[in-house]
Amino acid sequence: MDRVFAILTSVGLRCILGICLTGMVCPLFAQKKSALLMRDTLTGKDTLLIGKKFIPASPEKRQYLLEVELTPSKKVAFTPKEISFFREDGTDYRSFTLRWEGKEQPVFLPRVFFQPEDRLAIYRFIDPQKQKHYYYRFGEGELLPLAVTDSTSNVQSALTDYLLKFPVAQSDKRLQRYIRRMKPTPTSYKRRHRICSSGNLNYLPRFRWGVLAGIGFPSVELTWDDDLGQILSSDIGRQTQWYAGAFANVPLGQRGFSVHTEVTFSKVSAMIWGAPGLGTDMAYNRTMLYIPFSFRYTLVPIHGNFIPYIQAGPVLNIALAGDIKLHNDITDENGYVIHSPSEKEELKGFIPAFSTAIGVEWKVQHSHSLFLDIRYLKDLKDDTRYFRTSGWYLTLSYNL
Fold first, then answer.
1. How many Å apart are CA 386 and CA 277, to the nearest integer?
2. Backbone angles phi, psi at 28, to 5 degrees
């Protein structure tokens, strides 16, 4: 009996599991097909048609009329009074009676946003001037305009008060200001709802600026000289380089992308004894501004105070001052130095470069962060005729 009971139990569990999987798969499969729910005004019953072909129409025309190909030779046009719902290409359309310019008219409105936990749906309407307007409703409640005009003629979102009730919004003034600046569009609402529902303020886009300082260990290398027609390639070695400056970080939306730019003052010097191909001593000095334009991605979905990021982009190196000096001693027949002429060449212009970096942000306080990153920078062109630098840099930044 125990064995029979075990077998029956196993079979029963498999049947239940199969029914559950079927119930989960069938709705997903049905959502991929075209479907419409017809209203029968005579019997009061609804008829669901699945897999019918809808005749293409412009978004404006589709608001008032749905043409369906029932058979290859039969086409039928339905109005919002005849159909309560239809789905096309994964978009749901609902029939509503919309009041526009003092008149009530039946329309099909596409659902452009849905929030399952609160059964909040946002719908779009295109007016005769092809301007987009948005409406919302909770569950099967009343359809309300997403944008309302107050007594001072300011246009605000009707969902502002709803978002301000979230605990994270009540405790953070920056988020409150961000919510009140919400535009009456689904995208603007969705961005703010993500912060409120997750409680993660890292999603809050912020313009930041501050100061930076760092140390670099670039490798200075002699390169080919076109004028002399000689190979001057020679690695001089790594030179310690200090730098300091300021930065600005401009967010691009809410997903963690931003444009990061800096203005950094730096200086590099090198001395070569007996430069190859020239037989002279050479001194290289350059004072410059590094101006990188990087695209940064910060992993904002991460909770907590430590947030990693990566960035990459071009760098413009502008020469403020600098020169190359060639020095060669002339000796007499006895080997004594009798003259030491020096040739000097001023450095001008700029050098294009490229930089990549990986770092981490530490949120020290509510509105201030420390940034520590390791970056690699490489010149894409020789400095005047001789030098090219590349190497690793350690940068510490603080937003004010």
1. 12
2. -65, -40
pLDDT digits (tens, 9 = 90+) for 105-137: 899 999 999 988 889 999 999 998 999 999 999
Cα 127 from chain centroid (whole Å): 32
Strand order of the β-sheet with 103-115 is 46-50, 35-39, 83-88, 91-100, 103-115, 120-126, 132-138, 144-145
Query: Which DSSP helix (H) or strand (E) runs through 11?
Result: helix 2-31
Segment 379-390, tens digit of pLDDT: 887 655 566 778
Does residue 134 form part of some domain?
Answer: yes
**Cα 322 from Cα 318, distance rounded (Å):** 11
Angle between helices 186-198 and 173-180 (to 10 degrees): 160
How far is the C-alpha of 86 from the C-alpha of 153, rounded, in Å?
37
pTM above 0.70, yes or no: no
Residue where one domain finishes, among candidates 166, 181, 199: 199
Residue 132 maps to a domain: yes
